[in-house]
Amino acid sequence: MAVEKALNKKEQVDLDVADFSNEIELEETTFEEGTVELEDGSVVFGEVEEELEVSEVEFGENIAEYLDAAELARVSNEVLNNFEEDKSSREDWERTYTDGLKYLGMRFDEERSEPFEGASGVVHPLLSESVTQFQAQAYKELLPASGPVKTAVIGEVSPEVEAQAQRVKDYMNYEIMYKMEEYDPDLDLLLFYLPLSGSAFKKVYYDQTLGRAVSKFVPSEDLYVPYGASDLQSSPRVTHLVKMSVNEVRKQIAVGFYKDVSLTTYDNAEEYSDVDSEIDKLTGMESSGSDDIAELLECHTDLDISGFEDMDDEGETTGIKLPYIVTINKSNGAVLSIRRNYKEDDKLKRKINYFVHYKFLPGLGFYGFGLTHMIGSLSKASTSILRQLIDAGTLSNLPGGFKARGIRVRDEDRPIQPGEFRDVDAPGGSLRDALMPLPFKEPSGTLLSLLGLLVESGRRFAAIADMQVGDSNQAMPVGTTVALLERGTKVMSAIHKRMHYAQRMEFKILARIFAESMPEEYPYEVSGGSRAIKRKDFDDRVDVVPVSDPNIFSMSQRIMIAQELLTLVNSNPEIHGKEGIYEAYRKMYDALGVSDPDKLLKKPRKPMPTDPVTENSLMMMDGIPAKAFMDQNHDAHIQAHMLFMGTPLVQQSPQGMGMLQAHIFEHMSMKADLQVDQQLQNPQVRMQMQMMSAEQKAAQRESMKAQILAQQMQEFAQATTPPPQEDPLVALRKQELDIRAADLQRKSQTDQARIQVEAADDQRDSQLEQQRLAQQQNIASEKARIAQERLDQAERFKLFDIQRGR
């Protein structure tokens, strides 16, 4: 962070978009007063300062203030030598770039005298048309009106993380669109330079003076890397050529950002490169050579500086070079600043990257290829043929030739106007014999056809041919339409993906700056939390990506895809539902650029917990699937829905039956989750789970849930499975057997009743016989008793008589 703050002080001025790439002969450098040239060729500037201990130098300070003159001279020579090597290694690339700039057609040459005086100097607009078309398409895609940033949630999605992602997105778009005033024009300029040079750069840092993040455009001619570099991150050094007014440099010296050294300006006229000269010709500006400008080299490189070496745990030097940012005055080699380019708490001491590389085409080395490299020859040939056609027409319309000596034509130096007859003095003979025009031909049709072929080839490569979107067959399948669109835009699609990747890297650097250097509170009220949660929001849970789609790079392509999607959804609305139809129409409005489509669309309402009867009604009448919630009474909902499944209305609707079953299964799953949570509260189970790994815990939980669901599904199947249906013949035979059995049972019952009646009659007769016998016995007994009584009475009378006879 300290390195960023130090670096940002230096970038307080707007750099000129033109690059001033200079070549310096080191051996011819004129040293300022007080400098000493050592035996090894190094130069000592100023007086030797007293060495200090490394521990006395704060991490973010300018190390150049504490190094002796010899060490500063060594660092300066190393940076300058490396710069010259890097500069010379790309001379061919600069030459091709410069040649291509000549065919942009921005400068018209009216003084051409070859092949004749007044010959055409027109330039064919193939290259400029390709560049302009690309810039117009890419500019709108990479910087839409609503902002170029969107966010993606890393890992599990929750309402809290979604609110965080929305806050990050809103804040970054707010900073880029409203606070970073240079972002829009610099991106616009970058997209114009990119197809020309093939490479363009962004420098992203925190500006201490402005108090905000800055993302500046750096032309490719201002950034130098070694020959073998493949990308910015792995490059051993990156040198940014900065031009700054001497007065601004003195301000930086006054505030302590730069070391106080003597400044030497450079001669603009002498040190201009071919690229700078050609750009000046195109813009119509010319340097007077008297500008008070200092040329600085800001080199992001790895150095092993004496006194600040890398140490191991035992305090011994490792010999490993550490990342530094070295700024020197290119004209005299004076070192202005040396600062560490890694975080203070980073044990690995990894360098901090401030640059983003935008590539048009990958190329064969570090720098990309642009349209000047790829179709520059086609543009040159098209220009040559176009000039030949115009010159041929000029010579055909205004022919010259020979006339006989002595013939006089009045006002012969003035062209003959249409309908004009001019007097001619011919000494004798025929006038036709005295005049012989040269045999100039009409413009060649072959050349015209060849010009069309070259232009068509260049346009096809640059992918700027108009796409016939409106003329496509409406009955054409979606896949065919998309395939035709992709075939015609392969090159542009690949370029757009590379820009999408570069912009993503730029946003990552911006997000890091916002998290480390910006104020800890949001500058406005936010939803979902207090303003003080800004720094917490910029963590690893949210990824910042460009809002542009890497697969879509034009409005016509976006409209076509949205139209085909809408056709698919409307062709089968049942499987997409209301939410799918809403999203399809929303994408169509977004593709058309409608600012507020929600005012035109009826957004489907968000599912809310409700009673099972209302859910049944919505599913059957409106076809809206019900949503289960964890806090609901799952048993009651399941029972209510199962009872509703038994009604004739549901049984006659397969779709309604399917929605009901799916909703019941959702309740069963949530119920199983609750039961698993209850089982996990058991101390013994909780102790066993603590001894497992995360994967084992997840597997054990799923196993427990599966067992509960298996039991629930068995109960559900038993409750909803209808009884098995019999074969009609078997049922008829069974019915016949039942009738026979019933008949036999009826007969048996009749016989049983008859037997019971007969038994009852027999019993009654028996009882009557017994009563009769009993009665007879009673009569006999009574007779016997009476007879006995008579006998007894006779005996008593007899005894009485005997007694009386005495």
Tell how many strands the DSSP assignment holds.
16
The assigned structural class equals: alpha+beta
Shape: elongated
Sheet having the most strands: 5 strands, antiparallel
- The rounded distance between the terminal residues' Cα atoms is 171 Å
Architecture overview:
The protein has 806 residues and is an alpha+beta fold. Among the domains are: 2-131 and 184-373, no CATH class; 375-407 and 432-464, no CATH class; 618-720, no CATH class; 737-794. The protein is 51% helix and 10% strand. The protein is built from 25 helices and 16 strands. A 5-stranded antiparallel β-sheet has the order 6-7-8-9-10, with helices on both faces. A hairpin with a 5-residue loop joins strand 9 and strand 10 (335-340). Helix 14 (478-487) packs antiparallel against helix 17, helix 17 runs antiparallel to helix 18 (573-592) and helix 22 crosses helix 24 (694-720). The longest helix is centred in the last third of the chain and has 78 residues, at 728-805. The termini are far apart. Mean pLDDT is 78; it is low at 1-34, 45-51 and 465-472.
